[in-house]
Amino acid sequence: MSILLIEAFYGGSHKQLIDLLQRNVEDCVAYTLPAKKWHWRARTAAIYFMQAVPVSGSYRVLFTSSVLNLAELAALRPDLATLKKILYFHENQLVYPVRKNQERDFQYGYNQVLSCLVADVVVFNSAFNMESFLTTIGTFMKLIPDYRPKDLEKIIRPKCQVLYFPINFPDVKRFFTDDKHSYFSEKTVVEEARNPERCLSENEDSTLVKRLTKNSNSDQEPGSCKKISATCQEVPLNPPGTPQELNRKEESESTVPYHEEDKEQPTFDPCGKTGGMVKKCDELTNQQRPLRIVWPHRWEHDKDPEAFFKTLLKLKEKGLNFQVSVLGETFSDVPDIFTEARKDLDACVSHWGYISSKEEYFKALCEADVVVSTAKHEFFGVAMLEAVHCGCYPLCPNALVYPEIFAAEYLYSTPEQLFKRLQNFCKRPDLVRKHHAKVANAETKHQYRFLS
Hints:
By secondary structure, this protein is α/β, with parallel strands linked by helices. The chain is 33% helix and 13% strand. It is built from 18 helices and 14 strands. Helix 2 packs parallel to helix 3. The chain is globular and about 65 Å long. The two termini are 28 Å apart.
């Protein structure tokens, strides 16, 4: 085996990447640790892998994520130190948010800086991830009381590049609701990339490791923010009465939930205002069916579930009809807000909890109309892109990595803006269902490959 894959936190996007590489890279072998007790993995994984990885003269490349302290492993295993060492950043600890009244643990960020100094190639899943890490190194090192290292950014930056996280999007058309079949599936077009050799894909000539292990020079300047061209969904012009028009009518429509002719028609009340279902869902029109909202993120504080549930409770107080699915992975420490929100939103809940089956997960995404992020931290956002692939309209903070991926129409700057967008969509869910979300920022030509 010539390519050694090491993952100290084998779960979530870390697992997705290792699995994809194993499926598509010949002559590789993986050693992993379960995705539990993250802090202990970051502190002690190197000594575990020192013993777990057998000595072999066939290794040529070592690929690992930044959870592992690569400097420690290289010192403990001199035979691995001579390999070409590729370090992949799913997230960085220099700007990772911490809970209130909790100090940042200097050691985790320091470990990542050491790993970069030892690595031959440092890869980030987004320009936001790379720049937020590199430009914070100087400030971060000022926490050292004296004898501080200098110019670390200048040393590390030439090794760095951006390669967007590869996502294997399955064919989900069989899960589409009737409205998505009508307005979405037939109008989606996938084009060939102009520069396919610079993509992350499952094509054997453009896989991540093969790209990075080539001896030829890349046309990307090291440490730059130049992106990789790839295929993307081509999006038709917005139909009449688009979500953009709703945004312009926020003030005037705040008290007019429907057209006059809608008032006397039977409606569906998922939040229990009128006792539930007035007419069977499959008999309701596209306009009458309540807006279906999905939140598919980890149940942790950095995804700011408090902001999301606060917005939904405001919608409920306004008497607006909606259904919500709260998906995402849970760990040992679940914020209390989830228990409280489950009780307060009970009548509005379509699904609540982690879905282990990928097929069932994508089915749940296909049933939704709008996908919401309230994250205080996001370096790429796999869940949001998966939901867009399933036909959801994205609403994301105008911060973090999101402006790098989504056009301005999908971004909000304040909780009040998020509330107004969802309020308008609750009033006219049919318009959201006719929209085709763009997954590339038109200004910067950032594009993402849809793997099928």
